[in-house]
Amino acid sequence: FIALALWGMIMTSLICLRQSDLKSVIAYSSVSHMGLVIAATLIQTPWSTTGAMSLMIAHGLTSSMLFCLANTNYERTHTRTLLVARGLQLILPLMTTWWLLASLTNLALPPSINLVGEMLMITSLLNWDMTTIALTIVTTLVTATYSLYIFLTTQHNKPPTHGHLMPVQTREHLLLSLHAIPALMLIALPKLMLKCEHSLTKTLSCGLKNKIFPRSLPTEYDTLNCYLNTPRTNPLAYSHFQ
Hints:
The chain has 242 residues and is an all-alpha fold. The protein is built from nine helices and no strands. The protein has one domain (2-214). The longest helix has 32 residues, at 46-77. It starts with a helix and ends in a 14-residue tail after the last helix. Residues 1-142 form the NADH:quinone oxidoreductase/Mrp antiporter transmembrane domain. The chain crosses the membrane at residues 25-45, 51-70, 82-101, 133-154.
């Protein structure tokens, strides 16, 4: 099932490159990300579970933001076809900034919380089986391709021949800000989602010290390490090894 989830992730990513409808591309990209989430959830390790939760929360904000941007384009151009609704950078420059932010977040550019979730899940997949590195590399490349494809197609090329386009309204900026602010809060304060008191730059190092993902049961290495560091004056401390 893990292999099927990874294969479905690649197939849906390739389908995104063949879509001409803007909302269809965004919808298929969500399906592609959920394939990675399913694969990580099936492994059932603390790192994979936390990474899956992080990516679901982050992608919920990113995908909703992309759908809002697609709707703003549709309200002005009355079409969702990528080849028709193009060249909006010269007409709506402020919306181009939002499109750039959403596209870069969708492809998990640092220091977004999407990157943290994907890194945790990919690390768990590599620990499970090293052959998954090929599938994850292909998926990462295709994800970056269709994310840039959305941005370049809608913002560049020749502007449309519409007579008049409505300017950007304040409510639209407010709506997009309500997506961006929680994402920035998760970057600055990962303790809202992870069991860590540090900033994002110290999150991975905190995880290596088992502060993010404490093990519920001690392993044999932990028991032996505890035995070696315990004074021999207490016979109960090393009676387990006798």
